[in-house]
Amino acid sequence: xxxxxxxxxxxxxxxxxxxxxxxxxxxxxxxxxxxxxxxxxxxxxxxxxxxxxxxxxxxxxxxxxxxxxxxxxxxxxxxxxxxxxxxxxxxxxxxxxxxxxxxxxxxxxxxxxxxxxxxxxxxxxxxxxxxxxxxxxxxxxxxxxxxxxxxxxxxxxxxxxxxxxxxxxxxxxxxxxxxxxxxxxxxxxxxxxxxxxxxxxxxxxxxxxxxxxxxxxxxxxxxxxxxxxxxxxxxxxxxxxxxxxxxxxxxxxxxxxxxxxxxxxxxxxxxxxxxxxxxxxxxxxxxxxxxxxxxxxxxxxxxxxxxxxxxxxxxxxxxxxxxxxxxxxxxxxxxxxxxxxxxxxxxxxxxxxxxxxxxxxxxxxxxxxxxxxxxxxxxxxxxxxxxxxxxxx
Length: 393
Ligand code: SAH
Hints:
It contains 13 helices and 13 strands. By secondary structure, the protein is α/β, with parallel strands linked by helices. It folds into 2 domains: about 20-80, DNA polymerase, domain 1, CATH 1.10.150; about 85-390, Alpha-Beta Barrel (TIM Barrel), CATH 3.20.20.70. It has a 9-stranded mixed sheet, with helices on one face. The protein has a two-stranded parallel sheet with strand order 1-2. The chain has a two-stranded antiparallel sheet with strand order 7-8. α2 (about 25-35) packs across α3 (about 40-55), α5 (about 150-165) crosses α6 (about 195-205) and α7 (about 225-235) packs parallel to α9 (about 260-270). The radius of gyration is 23 Å and the shape is elongated. It binds S-adenosyl-L-homocysteine (SAH). S-adenosyl-L-homocysteine (SAH) binds near residues 136, 361 and 362. S-adenosyl-L-homocysteine binds next to β10 and β12.
């Protein structure tokens, strides 16, 4: 192809001509898009509300389905806009029903989300970034080389894709398969606060997906200055990835601790506006053999949490190829849990889910960096699967 032919082709597909996605816009941005294609001012609010209903309550992916909107306007919308989801490059289902989707965004970058079904509910674990800058030493995502923030549309799309796959449109009042959202996928949500906040307000909007803030949990490794803002503006449930009770160790395994040490982090938790007995803060604690799992550490944890309405989520370490840690033995986890429990804190041991599809906590890592054959073999040789059955029993 000649250079001239090439540029003529490119000119025919300038970004301005390409249908623009309406996903991830707030109502006023939606109205502005409509105004730009000639919808009269007096109709903007109503039209934006109709679109909102079709996109987020009914899950429409096609303007033709929007029967409350005139045919002419539907045709105009289809000409300028799209409701396409990101490409699903891989969809996996675990033997325990956990499902994982690898999504590819328009620049080719990928991120994962995971649906964890339970008897009468189900949580979607949503990613906030491609990769992560935190480098927690036990976390697989931290080994990924590429990092960028996800935009509001890319975050909301994870929910739309899951609802499509679960065939859960229109948004049901109750009995939902996707009843909860946990911002516990790839990335640090408080390093991408604005986009996460925008996406979550779309998800919480009562005329759309309508998930209550009580059913949304944001997990952070401890970006202290953003915790207060998150509480004031979003008031979602808070989870803290604590993982160590002394600064020396936490500096090593959760390096953001060097910037925001444990005492400052816990002060921010004490000030978290929605923390009350009804809405306790969750402290996540990954159980690493001979690293952070001693009874003395459990007692220190109890001491640290004093005065904070808290529950403790003990997460048996999920191994990944080349990880420099091992999972604590069941006995140590049980002894640790007992000490925390006896002090009055609920301390469930999290059952690893979806391990056969690399969907368990901390195993998310997009295929931007593929596993080598050797790594895959190493993983299939771990005993994690068998152990998870024991935990379930
Ligand atoms: N950056 C946020 C969101 C990630 S959430 C945060 O740190 O909270 C993912 C949760 O899984 C965190 O609690 C994380 O510490 C934990 N995790 C990471 N790798 C893990 C692993 N290999 N095994 C068990 N839990 C892990």
